[in-house]
Amino acid sequence: MVKSNIITITVKEVEGKVTYNHITAEKTEIDEGESVHFTGVVRGYIPSLEWYIWIRVYVDDVEKASFDIYPKEAGEFEETYEFDITFDRKGTYNVYTEALVQLTRYE
């Protein structure tokens, strides 16, 4: 009997991903000490409910807040999120978010 060559197969875990992340602001001109309400939409894919979306909020490239979104179903998702930022000093600020799909680690 002659044995064939060996072929190694690597099966990777299916990963989640974000395909779209967009925010809008209720207003873009305010007075010192006022807050702005933001609404965001994030879309993507999670292979199971062990995954969640981690949202990070930045003002002028400095992280100011973060929060998690837990989709109700696995597969393709579209979730809406909201947050407020108070601006205490006059100036011009750039606000953006980053969205990343994360796997929940149970320990």
Detailed description of the structure:
With 107 residues, the protein is an all-beta fold. The protein has strands at residues 17-25, 34-46, 51-59, 62-69, 75-87, 95-103. The strands form two sheets. A three-stranded antiparallel beta sheet has the order 1-2-5, with no helix packed on it. It has a three-stranded antiparallel beta sheet with strand order 4-3-6, with no helix packed on it. β1 and β2 (34-46) form a beta hairpin. The chain is elongated, with a radius of gyration of 20 Å. The chain starts with 16 loop residues before the first strand and ends with a strand.
Order of helices and strands: EEEEEE
| Strand composition percent | over 45%
Residue runs with pLDDT of under 50 for 5 or more positions = none
Number of H- or I-type helical stretches: 0
**What is the number of strand segments?**
6
